[in-house]
Structure formats: structure tokens, C-alpha cells
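input
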Amino acid sequence: MGELRLVELSASTIVAVNNLSLKPGQEQFLAPISYAVAGTVANPATAWQRVVLDDDQVVGFVSANFDVDAPQDYFRSVLWRINVDADDQGRGVGRFAVAKLLEEARDRGMEHVDVIYEAGEGGPQAFFERVGFTPVGETEYGEVIAEIRL
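output
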């Protein structure tokens, strides 16, 4: 693995982000990446979307939102999406992306970062727990709300 770095999502990286592969079974836990990209269009002042590069190769994508005026506390500082290419999973790419997200949240004066996910075998829960998220509740739809206190 080369040196990991984050860059803003751009016209030059979006095609590669859309072509990130998943391991079998992971697709049931993720909406299409275009949904996350649409978040920037709908909320340009609060959306934070970054691409993880290994040297110059796109290996991951992270999308978050920072909105101190959000009606629910768990939407004020939230990790919406994290994707790591199937071939690059298990190499620290996701951990790197979450660490950078936490830095951004601290820089913005946030007290925590939340993530909302669907529980289930093969889902993201084990990853989120490994990087420090702790379940704290559920949405009205039964999704898990987990957080990292900063």
C-alpha cells in the first residue's frame, strides 16, 4: 500500500468512486453512490465528501454531513456513507477515512460523530465497532444509531 490521502470528490474522481466494487452481500447494506453524491447538491453548505486515494488510485469514498441546525441530534454530525473497494478492504483504508472524518468534526467543534446503519450478517456493524463507534439507539425504522464521542 502506498500513501493514503483524501481529496474532495470531483469530476475527475467521481467515475472511479461509482465503480468501487463490493464484496458479495455488501450491496444490500448500501444505497447507490449517486444518492450520497446528491447530498452535496441538496446540502452544499453542510455536506462533506472525500475520496481516499492510494497514491493516485481511488480506493474509497466517505460522505458525511455537519449541520448544527439539524432537528435530530444524530443528524448534526453524521457519517452517511463509507465505501472501500472490495480488493482494498482490510488494509486500513476505512480506518484512515474515519480518522480523517473525526479530525474534520473536531475542527468544526462537533462533540460527536454518529453513523446510522442496518444491522445484519455481513453488514457494517463489526467495522464500525472496530473503529470506535458504540451503539446508542435506534431510528424509528429500526436502524442502529452509533456514535463516537470526541
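quick obs: Strands lie at 4-8, 47-54, 57-66, 77-84, 112-117, 134-138, 144-149.
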